[in-house]
Each structure stands twice: as structure tokens, then as C-alpha cells.
């Protein structure tokens, strides 16, 4: 009789522990999915840049200037709730070297840079958004 009670007690403790581990794992997975975009970007378009103001602190693209080696890639991620683009040149004079088109929220855009130089870019929807890729 005492043996049976002990076995039942041990089993129920095991079940509680297993359930506890399963729940804690799933809750960790859920929070990381909610807070992090699927793709980790080199440059992000943060929230609220669809309104002027980010250019005052140079934070429309973060970082607004990125320096890489020739042959490397840059990935942009739109972390805002509005559409944005990564378009080469300046608003008044696009260079037509690259253009992401409208990026949905949390959509990403990756480019290979195989030539050295300085590549200015902007957002076609928000002329105050400007950034630069320096390829060495
Ligand atoms: Cu924009």
C-alpha cells in the first residue's frame, strides 16, 4: 500500500514537471516569435519614420551609414508598420542602380555589393529618409 502511494506520488510529480517544462518552452518560443523579425537585418527601418522627424537625428535607417567590404551583402528590414523602400540615389535624382519597391512591414531586402564606392539611397514614399552604403 505504501509502495503504491509512493509510486503514484512520484509519477504525479514527474507529470507536473514534464507539463511545466513543456509550457515554459512554448512560452519562450512564442515571445521570441512576437518580438523579433524572422530576418535579422544589417539596416532597419524603425517605427514612426513615415512622418518627418527621423532625419533630425539621422535615424530613418539605422544605421544610416553602413560600411562593408566589396563582395558583402546588406539586408534591410522594414520594422515599421508602413511601407518603405530602399532606392538608389536621391529623391530628386534616383540612379536606378537598385530599387526594393515597396517593402511591407517586416519584409526584407538584400543586395550584394561587388563594386567599391558610395551608394546613397532613399525611400520613394518618404523623401526625408536617406541612407548610405560605403563599399571599401
Ligand atoms: Cu519610407
UniProtKB/TrEMBL annotation:
Residues 56-136 form the Blue (type 1) copper domain. InterPro entries: BlueCu_1, Cupredoxin, ET_Amicyanin. Gene3D superfamilies: Cupredoxins - blue copper proteins. GO terms for molecular function: copper ion binding; electron transfer activity. Pfam families: Copper-bind. It comes from the Archaea. Signal peptide: none annotated. Keywords: Copper, Metal-binding. This is Blue (type 1) copper domain-containing protein. It comes from Nitrosopumilus cobalaminigenes.
Amino acid at each position: 500500500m505504501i509502495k503504491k502511494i509512493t509510486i503514484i506520488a512520484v509519477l504525479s510529480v514527474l507529470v507536473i514537471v514534464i507539463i511545466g517544462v513543456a509550457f515554459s518552452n512554448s512560452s519562450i518560443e512564442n515571445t521570441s516569435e512576437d518580438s523579433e523579425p524572422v530576418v535579422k537585418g544589417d539596416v532597419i527601418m524603425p517605427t514612426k519614420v513615415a512622418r518627418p522627424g527621423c532625419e533630425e537625428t539621422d535615424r530613418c535607417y539605422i544605421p544610416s551609414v553602413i560600411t562593408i567590404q566589396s563582395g558583402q551583402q546588406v539586408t534591410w528590414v522594414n520594422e515599421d508598420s508602413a511601407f518603405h523602400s530602399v532606392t538608389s540615389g536621391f529623391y530628386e535624382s534616383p540612379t536606378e542602380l537598385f530599387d526594393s519597391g515597396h517593402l511591407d512591414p517586416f519584409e526584407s531586402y538584400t543586395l550584394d555589393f561587388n563594386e567599391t564606392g558610395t551608394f546613397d539611397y532613399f525611400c520613394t514614399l518618404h523623401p526625408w529618409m536617406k541612407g548610405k552604403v560605403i563599399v571599401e
